[in-house]
Amino acid sequence: MEKTFSHRRLDIVEERPMIGDLKDRWPALFQESGENEEFLRITTKPLQTKFLAQLDHFSEKLFQIFESQGGVKGQKITRILAIKDERDDIEIRRECVLKSLIIYLNEDPDSLFKEYRPSAAEDAVNDIVDTVMGIHTVRQFEEPDDIGVVIEGVKVLQKVTSATMAFIMLFGLIYALDLSFPDKLKHTFEFVQKILMNLDGHRLNKKIQQLKIKLFM
After folding, report:
1. How far is residue 43's CA from residue 194's CA, in Å, rounded to a whole number?
2. What strands, in cross-sheet order, belong to the sheet with 146-151?
3. Residue 59 and residue 40: Cα distance in Å, rounded?
4. In the chain, count of helices (H) and strands (E)?
5. Which of 27, 56, 90, 93 is deepest in the core (most CB within 10 A)?
6. pTM of the full predicted structure?
7. What is the dihedral of CA 161, 23, 119, 79, to 10 degrees?
């Protein structure tokens, strides 16, 4: 992958092949280890380790900010944070941070995180076709049966270990495949890009700038 990096970037950036074709052409990009390596080549920053370290570092402060939110938005966040309080699980905690962050930034977590019962497999398949970017979870009981990442109607990853890891992999693939952030979640991804990952942080959306100030107070 290292030796073919320049050729691959030229292929992706200039030719703009379909996601399915890219998956066939560069299968290692759609594996956790290959994606981490590619992100490091592009940005010089480690994807998974930096994301998780920064998310965990800011979690407590973010929870304090989220819990002070009033109105309808505050009610939605409260329902999500109640899940965190019910289970002492680091992955649940991380997922709650991400979903609360999306709501705080006036975006909708349901536009990214989709959940299905195994009995609704046909609905999941139909939704995948219409999904530009998404994280699809199949769950019968407490633990998920499958967590997958969908881009442009193609399930590019499956059996991901957690919703947070799926988010990380989606973020990394946006860089690896030279994609734009989804319009409905552009503030969330900008926060991750500029605050958590410290990439291109010179110009911030007003809402993100305000959140950054609160984080560092």
Report:
1. 12
2. 113-116, 133-138, 146-151, 154-157
3. 24
4. 10, 4
5. 93
6. 0.93
7. 50
